[in-house]
Amino acid sequence: MYQKIITYHPENNEQLTIRELLKKWLIPKKWQHFLRTQQDILINGKYHSFNTVVQNNDVITLNFNFPPRSEQHYLPGDHPIDVVYEDDDIIVVNKAAGRKTHPNIMTENDSLMNDVETYLKNGHPYMVHRIDMETSGLVLIAKTPYLVPIFNRQLSDKTLTREYLAVVNLDREIPDAGEINLPIDQDPNDVRKRMVKSSGLNAVTKYEVLQKNSDYALVKLNLLTGRTHQLRVHLAYNHWPIVNDPLYNPHQKVGKLLLFAHKLTFKQPFYNNLKIIKSKPSKNMYNLIRAYF
To answer: How many domains does the chain have?
Structure first.
């Protein structure tokens, strides 16, 4: 069972019922039903009707005493991890380029999630989102499966956002800022690749040029959707392929993919405080980036 105890402080003097508060916290309706019928939500130690208005400084106890939507299981890994942020419920890790976020089959143990399994010792990791194997940077991981659907809803309503830095080849002039709105589908000729295709899923990327010269640009990228290889495909399609991309850049490769997930923004579950987690590229990555400008 996962238990969460919160001392409630209303935002902007709002007056919310228990039902309205659970909705604001993005707790799925089915779980709200369980909390009500099993009387697993307590206000100051007692169960109350869902129409009860929650008061400032009320102590809310949530007992998630029912099965989560899905379970995730990982074998322990043997690599150290770079922890950028950690609290009782989540951990944010800086993934190295060339390392998978998660195993493809349960018997594998050579991915970031395997390494976090070892790090947590008495707990287990639950994947919220992933980044490509070649991409480095921040990955948000939950310590309980009961937070995964809450973060999934944040991804859907754009309160969980991911920002990247990339160095791109300028095979065509790039505007100072813009939005790429092009659908992405599987490449029928290569199972490893994706491509812009009208039959694909909606995909939207915002970009801003931070620095550029005649051959390269350093760009800031925001994912508004989360399709596989989205940034790499969108940029390559516009003739701005990411430097050292082994799949989508025709230029010679001279090192790691220059794509780094440097910023995560999300709302802290059950509190709605805005959390902003940032990380700097590794020294090697930083030196590679600076070499182009």
So the answer is: 2
